[in-house]
Amino acid sequence: MNKSTIINRIILIVLFLIVCFFIASYLFPNDKEKIKKQFANLASAVSIIPGEKPIQIGLKMTTMPELFDNPCEIEATHEWINGSYTPQEISSQIMRAKMNFKSLSLTFYDISIELRDDFAVVNFTARLTATKKDNKSIEEVREVKADLRRKEKKWVFTKFAVVETLKK
Amino acid sequence: MKLKGIVKNFFLPKLDTKYLIRLLAIVILSYIIFKYFLIPMKIHGESMEPTYKNGSFNFCRTFLCGKFKKGDIVAIKLAGSRIMYLKRIVATEGDTVEFKNGTLFINSIPQKEQYVKYPCSWNLNARFVENGNVYVIGDNRSMPIESHLFGQVELSKIAGKPLW
Questions:
Q1: Nearest CA to A166 among B12, B60, B61, B145?
Q2: Which of A17, A49, A116, B28 has the largest CB neighbor count within 10 A?
Q3: CB of A68 less than 8 A from some CB of B
Q4: Distance of alpha carbon B143 from alpha carbon B148, whole angstroms
Q5: Which residues of chain A have a CB within 8 Å of the CB of B85?
Q6: B83 and A142: CB-CB below 8 Å?
Q7: Does the complex come out with an ipTM higher than 0.90?
Q8: d(CA B140, CA B119)
Q9: Torsion, CA A109, CA A117, CA A37, CA A140, rounded to 10
């Protein structure tokens, strides 16, 4: 066997191992991947996808409370929003707020997860882009810290706190 | 004939091991450069207008930034560097910052800010910039003070400066 064939075989083995790793992490997600999945579920629940059918919106409404703990605490710079809420209260507030928008997209970036047994502290950047019914555009970006806890094999949000990066 | 061969090799190289290694090296090097040293950024929003237009493109230079001083434009990290704020430093640690009828006062001295082109009517009580912090504001102050994100930020949150 010449040198080139050996290198080609090594490349093939490395590629095969990478593919195996991705298949394994998809089939058997670890806690960090499960938490990231909850963030994707939250983003999907809050966002308004153009052309979304009423049945899909209804389905989101019924599954959304499963994302939050009872109670779930919210700490933001606007005092009127601060407090503890039930999962149903949060879901109905989100649905009510969504009624004011034509399109809405919530995306999470730079998600860093710190696991402590059955608890997790997650730091991330949230970006909300939306168009109101009067065609006014909104774009908000905030650093947020979220706490989650494991509840019956699922991770649920227990707290959201907006980090004040710029202090007026 | 020789030139034709060089051109052909350049545009249609042979997919051999050497080529794959070269390609891998370029991919890894590009990843390191654009992840840690020259972070590409698309500017969203109007808070730095007219200096930086909404929708324009730039790079955040994270090296050879020196000590940050008044007048510098900086990119500020949030949870990471995928989304950052772009603002101008107007005061450093130990200074007091104040607005009176749209004029910025640093240590009670009114500032001439050539880069502010739009009218401003902000009023803000004096605040002290703590140690290890700088005070940043956008160049566009035509909006109400409540809807403009500005304030003091820790130096550790500054990722770098825009390349141009």
A1: B145
A2: A49
A3: no
A4: 7
A5: 141, 165-166
A6: no
A7: no
A8: 9
A9: -30
